[in-house]
Design a protein that fits this description.
about 0% strand; 4 helices; about 150 residues; Substrate Binding Domain Of Dnak, Chain:A, Domain 2; mainly alpha; Lysozyme inhibitor LprI-like N-terminal domain-containing protein; signal; elongated
């Protein structure tokens, strides 16, 4: 029994490690772009503004990818029921992702004094990076739908 539990634990930690590695890779890619665009030598208010702008831009890209996916799915040759079930699950996934992203980013902010620019920077940066990763996911879904038989 103990060997079985150890084996299950090993498999779980291996798959979690692979998943974390893929996520870290995507995050590192997005993070490299974030560092280049928000100059930490500027005053804190300017850094906050930079991440606010980046959030607006990434939200626009996210909305475009989301709408592109919807158009692609709804225009696909599959029956209406299949498309409806797929799309309702995507909508549910998107709502859950927004809640998760917001909670995770607010959690990061608690390590900084409430209402400070440092807190706003950390939260805005987290929102931006998380949104960039979600865009990658939606774009992968677009490729998935395009490559269906």
């Amino acid at each position: 029994m103990l060997k079985y539990l150890f084996f299950i634990g090993f498999i779980f930690s291996s798959s979690a490690s692979a998943s974390a590695s893929a996520s870290a890779s995507a995050s590192a890619s997005a993070s490299a772009n974030a560092s280049d665009e928000c100059d930490y030598t500027l005053p804190l208010g300017s850094i906050v503004a930079c991440y606010e702008n980046k959030n607006e831009e990434s939200d626009a890209v996210l909305n475009k990818s989301y709408n592109d996916l919807k158009k692609l799915v709804m225009g696909s040759p599959y029956d209406d029921e299949t498309k409806g079930v797929y799309w309702s699950n995507i909508v549910k996934s998107q709502k859950n992702w927004i809640q998760m992203r917001d909670s995770q980013c607010l959690a990061k902010g608690v390590f900084f004094e409430n209402g400070t620019d440092l807190q706003r920077i950390e939260i805005k940066k987290c929102l931006f990076l998380s949104t960039e990763i979600r865009v990658l996911y939606l774009n992968e879904e677009i490729l998935f739908i395009k490559n269906l038989p």
